[in-house]
Design a protein that fits this description.
- The protein has helices at 7-33, 36-39, 44-66, 70-96, 105-142.
- It is mostly helical.
- It is 79% helix and 0% strand.
- The chain is built from 5 helices and no strands.
- It has one domain.
- Helix 1 runs antiparallel to helix 5 (105-142).
């Protein structure tokens, strides 16, 4: 990581990515209990394996982001987009509908939390990518082929 790169951006991405784990994992358990994998033609075992693979990629993204890697920010950006789209497409109608739903308010709160955290993760990851490219562009510009000190 370049010394002028803001460490606060790394912390924000990592904090939001961890928060994403904290809201998506319990919700995913609830989805399994509610039979959501079957709605998509998946067995619980197949869906569990796919979800575990997705979480493994997410954890790698968190580790890479903590190191200031552009790949970590990109992975977290894609994870955020995936959770936001998935939650909105699959659950937004259920959230706005009145009446009983799964475990009631806690279930709806987790779904809203997923969308809120995912949106924040998208914004911060995109900002980190942009800041990283800006810093790397400054380094390339400063160490370019010409020597201005002559």
């Amino acid at each position: 990581m370049h010394a002028s790169y803001p460490a606060s951006v790394n912390r924000q991405v990592v904090a939001l990515a961890v928060a994403s784990l904290l809201v998506t994992l319990p919700h995913s358990f609830e989805d399994f209990v509610a039979g959501v994998p079957g709605r998509f033609g998946l067995s619980v075992l197949a869906a569990g394996f796919l979800l575990a693979c997705a979480y493994a990629v997410h954890v790698v993204g968190i580790v890479l982001a903590a190191r200031g890697s552009v790949w970590g920010y990109a992975i977290n950006l894609l994870v955020g987009i995936g959770w936001l789209l998935g939650a909105a497409i699959d659950h937004l109608p259920e959230i706005v509908r009145s009446g009983p739903y799964r475990a009631g308010l806690p279930s709806k709160a987790f779904e809203v939390g997923i969308m809120a955290v995912a949106t924040a993760l998208i914004v911060v990851s995109a900002r980190a990518l942009g800041a990283r490219q800006s810093v790397e562009g400054d380094v390339e510009h400063d160490s370019g082929g010409s020597d201005d000190r002559r």
